Amino acid sequence: MFEFDEMQIDAVVAKGRQGLWGPLARAVSLVENSPPWEVSVPRAPRPCHIVGVTGPPGAGKSTLTGRLIESCADAGQRVAVLAIDPSSPLTGGAVLGDRLRMETHLSGRPEVFVRSLASRGSHGAVAGATRNIARLLELSGLFDIVLIETVGAGQTEVAIVEVADTVLLVTVPGLGDAVQSIKAGLMEVADAFVVNMADRPGVRETTRHLRLAAGRANAVYQTVATEGQGVDELRVGLQKRWQDLTEGDRLQELRLHKWSSDASLVAEAWVADCAATMDLEPQDSMHNAVNRILKEAAVRWTQ
């Protein structure tokens, strides 16, 4: 198992403060290309706000994320962005679509760290290494907020809740996305809602529907990301959410719950990796096959 030590983190931080992201980018690559059980990232002494931006394809998540980068940076916040892109079927690498759509908003902002990650078929369209990478960015102490934009696989995006402190669900008027979100369970895991493209017909109805379903009128924002409208209000709302989380024990309790879920996900990935290398008998019963996999996985884990 590889574990980041204090000297390595100090080197990353020293370069990052100079606006040199090479060491951090290499550390991120190490985490991304390693199975989650082979990397250990210590818990950070100072937490930063990890925000997941999710929603159906075409809702304008990349444009909204780009505008949030501008708003947060202009307000003096140090920003990192993880853009989860679809994987190339040939190389397994990220297609970089989200990064390209953000370029306009990144121009002239070398202090913003942006990294594209390949989903590689991970559950919930969230790259398997994203959790460890977010922890690494937090551990560096270089950022106040980490934005994670998911690949936009619609009804499978619930997994983002296992990574983020705050989940933003982005939708648009007139597509019935609010109803689909409720069916998918996204309504239950989202902490705030953004009705993007709010200059389109149907915005009032969609906003009203979300407020009724969420039961929190102040958790729904309207934006026109292409024009930057409503983005500053969204940033202020996120800052208020972070302030509420860091007062008292709310953030600690939230992350302790995620820690147990994280351990389960790592265990699931480990068992799947072991099963992929085993020769199972087709005529064997399902019970026996599962029993063999679990025993073999347990043996390998203790070796």
From TrEMBL:
It comes from the Bacteria. Gene3D superfamilies: P-loop containing nucleotide triphosphate hydrolases (3.40.50.300). InterPro entries: AAA+_ATPase, GTPase/Isobutyryl-CoA_mutase, P-loop_NTPase. Residues 47-193 form the AAA+ ATPase domain. Keywords: Chaperone, GTP-binding, Hydrolase, Nucleotide-binding. One of its GO terms (molecular function) is hydrolase activity. This is ATP/GTP-binding protein. It comes from Streptomyces malaysiensis subsp. samsunensis.
